[in-house]
Amino acid sequence: MSSISSIFDNLQKNRWRISQTNAQERIEKLKNLRKHILQKRYDIYKALHDDFQKNEVEIELTEIQPTVAEINFCMKRLKKWMKPQRIKTPMMLMGTKSRLRYEARGVVLIISPWNYPFHLAVVPLISAIAAGNCVIVKPSEVTPHTSHLLCELISQVFDKNEVCVVEGDVSICQELLKFPFDHIFFTGSGRVGKHIMRAAAENLSSITLELGGKSPAIVDKTASIKSAAQRIMWGKFLNAGQTCVAPDYVLVHKEVHEMFIAAVKNVWKKFYGESSRPEVGQIVSEKHWERLATMLDEVIADGGKVVLGGQRECNHNYLAPTIVRDVSLTASIMKQEIFGPILPIVTYESLDEVTSFICNNDKPLAVYIFSHSRGNIQRILTNTTSGGTCVNNVAIHLGNPHLPFGGVNASGIGNYHGFHGFKTFSHARSILYQGPFSGLSFIYPPYREWTKKLARCVTNIFS
């Protein structure tokens, strides 16, 4: 592979040509990308299975389908997005007209994570291409088979002077961050996000940070307990809990706590049968497995009781879906993002406890509210903040391309998906056209007494 410096220079030289492509040219590129993704469906299955035993159903539903859906959504609307928008002009600027035009940022860097290594690399790439950028994609080295596949696929779809995949470890990422990218899009942990932000500051590069955090699921006493248990269990244990928007813990009203535990047990049997080794994907690496095993040991030491699961196989990086009850809000597991198949269940007595706990910690990527009380729902929405929220479900808000997806502060900066992704990778350029007549000419120097009176008169009229 060419040196990073030569790759960056070639993209810089090409960025003006790419930024001037029209909507149809960009749509053709997205069509070609979609075609290659569908042609390589079974290669994608194999790469993700080889990386961390991900099953085909989850690959199809969480990696391939939403990626293709994003392409289709963008292609259908791109001409409209690219068209300059008419903007209202105030009377003070009579004789002018205003437009808003979205322009490519230039050369952008996408640093993608390991948990959904295909989807979370390609979806921001779709937005970047739709906006007319040149791109370097840096996939995670933790999932090498998917990284290699991305490199092969993207090289078949795009010219190397438009989109290039750079593989490698942390040192390669650090080297990339030295270059003056016009935008950096990072998905990963908050700890690494801080390093990305510092590096971007050196070149005043704009950034989007898609991070994570402890997203709570709140079950009040008006909730449909059966459906709440089913939806929370599905969202939590999808991809072995390695999902940024997975419910991190459950806050259950004490009056329905035992009902919820019973419902969870029924859902467990429905999902996994009587197996002593539920079939889920493995933890991505030994390092991450050890972190989760330690976390589980600590929550048990803190007084938590394992209701279901808990089986471990260190030689296969396997940790069964695990439900832990009687967890205290002060337990160590409640202080850090779990990012794995451990679900703590905490009881509460009043919504004040719930909102206070959420607000006294980092702002979460999502808040999930299970309730049929409009008052309770509104109270939680009013007294908390998060990147997104689902009412009576989990995680599926990111499947709506009309909604922006992103966090707030510790859970992220900026957003994307659909038009919001197009905007993220674009510069909104304000343009004002002056006609033959300008009323401002009456207040040009030299300033005489009548000019002062006119200025005061204008202020009074428009105040």
From TrEMBL:
Listed Pfam families: Aldedh
Keyword set, alphabetical order: NAD, Oxidoreductase
Gene3D superfamilies: Aldehyde Dehydrogenase, Chain A, domain 1 (3.40.605.10), Aldehyde Dehydrogenase, Chain A, domain 2 (3.40.309.10)
Catalytic residues of the enzyme: E210, C244
Matching CDD domains: ALDH_AlkH-like
GO cellular component: cytoplasm
GO terms of molecular function: aldehyde dehydrogenase (NAD+) activity
GO biological process assignments: aldehyde metabolic process
Domain Aldehyde dehydrogenase intervals: 17-430
Family: Belongs to the aldehyde dehydrogenase family.
Descriptive protein name: Aldehyde dehydrogenase
